[in-house]
Design goal:
- The structure holds three protein chains of three kinds.
- Chain A is an all-alpha fold.
- Chain A has helices spanning 2-7, 19-40, 57-64, 66-97, 106-118, 121-139, 145-169, 173-180, 185-214, 217-222, 230-238, 244-271.
- Chain A has a domain at 68-240: MetI-like (MetI-like fold), CATH 1.10.3720.10.
- Helix content of chain A is 76%, strand content 0%.
- Chain B has one domain (85-304): MetI-like (MetI-like fold, Orthogonal Bundle).
- Chain B has helices at 2-49, 66-72, 86-118, 125-133, 140-151, 156-163, 177-201, 205-213, 218-246, 250-255, 263-271, 277-304; strands spanning 51-53, 59-63, 73-75, 82-84.
- The two termini of chain B are 40 Å apart.
- In chain C, strands 1, 2, 3, 4, 5, 6, 7, 8, 9 and 10 form a ten-stranded mixed sheet that branches.
- In chain C, helix 6 (167-177) crosses helix 7 (187-201) and helix 7 packs parallel to helix 14 (329-343).
- Classes of the chains: A mainly alpha, B mainly alpha, C alpha/beta.
- At the A-B interface, helix 2, helix 4, helix 5, helix 6 and helix 7 of A face helix 1, helix 3, helix 4, helix 5 and helix 7 of B.
Chain lengths: 272, 310, 344
Amino acid sequence: MASWTAKRKLFSIYKLPGFTFIAVSCFLMLYAPIVILVGYSFNSGSSLALWEGFSWRWYYSAWENETVQDATILSLVIALQAALYSTVLATMAALGTTRTRAFRGQTAIYTMINQPLMVPEIVTAVALLIVFATIKQATGYHGISYLVIAHTAFCIPFAYLPIRARLEDMDRSLETAAADLYATPWRSFRRVTLPLLWPGILAGAMLAFVISLDDVVITEFVKSAGQDTLPTFMLGQIRRVITPEMNAIATALLAVSVLMVSLIFLINRKKT
Amino acid sequence: MSEESQSLSRYELAARQQETKRNWLLCTPALVVLVLAASGPLLVMLFYSFLQGGDYGGVVYQFSLDGWLNVFMVRDIFDDVLQFADAHLSVFWRSIKLSAMTTITCLVIGFPTAYFIATRPRGSRNFWLFLITIPFWTNLLIRTFAILELIRNNGIINNLLLDLHLISEPIQILYTDTAIMIGMTYVYLPLMILPLYASMEKLDFQLVEAAYDLYATRIRVLRRVIIPLIKPGIVAGSILVFIPSLGAFVTPRVLGGGKNLMLGNLIQLQFDQGQNWPLGAALSITLLLIVMVTLLLYVRYAQNSGAKHG
Amino acid sequence: MTKVIRKSIVALAMVAISGSAYAAGELNLYNWGNYTNPELISKFEKEYDVKVTITDYDSNSGALAKVKAGGHGFDLVVPSANYVQIWINEGLLLETRPDQMSNFKNVAPEFANPDWDPERHYTVPWQWGSVGMIVDTSVYKGDINTSAIYLDPPDELKGKINVAPEMNDVISSAIMYVGGEPCTTDKAILRKVRDKLVAAKKHWLSMDYGVIEKFAGRDMAASLYWNGAAFRAREKNSDVRYGYPQEGFALWMDSVAVLKDARNVENAKLFQNFVMRPENAALISAFARYANGISGSDKYMPDDMKNAPEIIIDPKLAGAGKFLQACSPEATKMYTAIWTELQK
């Protein structure tokens, strides 16, 4: 009797046929191009196809390349600001549209917030070119604020969705309890809602940051003199030659981002 | 009794108005930025679609329906006869077809993956999610080129198949519609996995267990229990993949080799070498309308099934 | 935690904005991507104590759109020859009279008075090149000096041909192949062009940039493309040769012009004069690997470029070369229609 139960494989309600296989293949598939990308950044030859040996030369040349440096810094500056602003705005918008009775104009707001997801970038890009060009001529201001505003705008829906999802999952009993204990709405927000919402906010911010870093079309049209970001710089390279220097830059950025996110993760883990 | 309920409802009304005001106030900053940098410019586009095109791009401030007309009809260059712009229509059709196929592929691959992550031990789930998102921290252009490296005739996949003697000549994957689909699936996969995962995380496995107790087979459980419960996630993920892929531009350009235009490329052409801004504007608005119809269907479905909005 | 983040953002922002704003002057160049030699720029910066920024564009029409819209902040732009008249007519260029500058004597006589900028009142030569057939001769051993390679392809090349996705270059090449003149609006000719292109497309592999890698990896065997890329492809795959179609091949030239609403006009003029010096023109060429229009620059050019058949056109073949003009809007509309039909 005992041997019979022991021999029978444990039935797991979680296992579905073939799912683990597909999932693992998915992970492998996701990383295959990344491995190639990172691998070729160490190519001693200048080709993206023929491996000629290991070398750090592209990292050196990227490090020396002033244009690349400027473009990278600008990309990061814009992305950080866009992520920050869009997350703050998205959090406020999420609080205003979730867990509340349906109010007039809610669908309209919802559509507006998600609209950047629906409109092809080239359309927004050309339209922004026209609008901003007029402003640039009128004010003579050529700074990066135009880029920051444009990026913030299309990052808002990306920050909004994870925050909203998280908010919907939270039940109000904790905030009601805080109110019962005479907490002001602001205090209740700071001490109860915000900490609970934090994973969603973080996810939204990270998503916004990545989206902003990657943007090429809108940036290409809105940028002013000397304001090339990494993607627009690389777009210009397509017509000429692409060297593994691009791979080196991308790998370096990837390493930095992974480190940053890991740090945030570890810090959050300690808190909980 | 009625007086009490009246005063209650007056109070409730005031409270509701307060809440609405508060909600609007919270949303205003985001809305301002969006109007300035997203919706406002769209109106400009709509305006432009009704203007006449300038000779070398740009617009002339004269009313003209040519932009809209050219979306569907084109004057045959040689006969001056109006006929269906089947060049445009075939681009529309290809875009819808490829986006739909990308969505389905993402679903087929994403569903098991999201399920896998959702059934890991609670503490490690974030780590798996982290693993999924890391590839997306690399620049899109470079990632697309890496995929190009994989599928070229002289690339890794073909070389592997040749070495294993499964094929005798390299398969032409690059520069086909399939290549575009592969590229788009790769790019939009996390947008499918994350909503699916969000739904699955909340799945009550007790229901699953109950189904097994009632002697259901695994396939049955999948079909009758899990999928219906996950439906909101499936729909959300599908929308998040279908809509952006309709307007995709970089991936088709790099992997399609420029021979196979998708809507995004067609629109871009009008603002670039084609120098026909009103047509580009009209095409964009058309794309938008297709998207809005899709979303309307989604909202209708969500309301009908009583699921929560979003 | 937030304080730390905020401080780092501010620090980064300051770094980005300040740059090295200590130079006496400024200059903003708007040029094709990957087309400007950094050495040239540093040389100019040192000589005139000017801080130069370079901003990229990847298409003539994109650049035109951006500058037309206004508020761009650029001083110099580098349009292709067939667009220069458009820029002039739209009133976007400043008439800086390069022909009166001190280094103008160095401009090669054949480029000193082009149709598209008579007597060079606006522009200074940057680089020039041709559009021809790049062929991997290990795959096809026949005559490569013909557009038939991509319009009536031989069997060995079918399915391995690339065509540059440049509407003007392709259409003008096809027009010349069927016997017409570039910029023609002759409907009979255009009908032939359309039919030929659509029929030939079946045998094309792609319409893409980045051919150098593909020739190196033997993914493609022929392409309608620019000569500089052919030169670089031959470095990686020694079977590559460049053909000059005798039915007619396009010549292009990019030139530097000053924008009418430039904010640093004096520095811009200095730059125009600067690139007319032979050693500087050679720097420009050495970077993107195309010929320049300044005589006397040959002694400064890198050795491998001095005799390359891709750079120095064989006089027997050169006669068929024609500089492309800006075509009338009517012609452009028809060409766009053909192009869209080609791409569906």
